[in-house]
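Reopening this ticket.

The earlier resolution said the output was attached, but the attachment link was broken on my side. Pasting everything inline this time so it's all in one place.
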Amino acid sequence: MSRDNEPNQEEAASADLVERALGPFVPTTEAEVEKAEAEGVEFNGELPPSLRQYRDPAAFSAPRSTRIVSIDDARRDREERKPSKSNVVALFSHGAAMVAGAVAAAAILLIVVRPKQPIAGPAGGDTAPVPSETAAPAEPGPIVLGDAGTCDADCCGGSQCARASKDMQTCPSGRTCTSCSREELTESQYRFKLGGLAPSEWGKKALQSGSLDVCVRVAGSDMVCAPAHTSEEAPSRWIELPLVATSGDNLAGVTVTIRYRGAKQALAEWNQIIPVNAAVLCKGLMIEPKMENGESIGALSMFLVDSHYVELGRAADVASLEELRRRFQTKLDLKIFETKQPDGRHFALAAGPFAKPQSERFRWAVLDAGAEAETSVGTDYVGDPRPAN
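Inline output:
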């Protein structure tokens, strides 16, 4: 026992009073035991009933005994059970070595076999697999596009129209299918395409004095001009003016003038209402602008062509659109247009031109294939397009 458990003076005085009243106690403290040993006190017999269940906390594993052993035997047994200092030091050193070894082993295990933290998966306790850091991104698959649709049964002209009359089976305008539907024809918008001028004698004299321009105005629009050329110089060359008109605009009147390059005064003029019907769209018109003296300056052909495009994308450079073009599988001729828009919308990849109903069908075909598409009439296009490689 330690000295912390020895009684102080007050406790000893209290014990003396109790002992005188009740009789001598069994020695319980180390001082009492040593005193009893010095006086030769020895007691053999049964423990009192209240002490028979008592057990030494340091010897819970020892078998119970209800007899009191001699003080000499108890002291000898206690001395034998006391660990020596060398044993305590050895035990502590051995335990410290075991703890240090366990810590080192745990550190090595954490370094060698520490698993990657899984990516949290959907609700329910699942975990998503950890993606490979070296896996290459999947290449997008090709986008397969059909054409803008077959020629409807309600058609009047063109090589694809089964019910076209003989004089409408081949269209000088190049159309392969011309609708008979007045509603379809009136909801579309058109551009003007002009052939070369076949000059009269008066026209030849005018050409000797300088180059000519051909200009067109629809209803109240501004005059739009382009260099004129003769049919003899370039018989297959066409002039397509950047002027978009509706059926209503054409009914308000179309004006065509021939003038010297850069001049404001016209040499000859033609003005007339143009009905939008299957015959005009298929065959076009032959017009003869008249001079002030009533003589014709010459003749030139004029056609109304479709102006609805389906744009598949815009970009700041041509290379980006050529890369986009390679994603599409289609028999249609895709073109790249320069536009008036700045920065990322300066070039456009487009299919067409189509009539408005065709453009909407094709736009939806592109959207259904998972690509982006929007329709345009190309009012911001600049110059002629180039094929998309």
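Reporter confirms the inline version is readable. The two ends are 101 Å apart (CA to CA). Residues 85-113 form the longest helix (29 residues).
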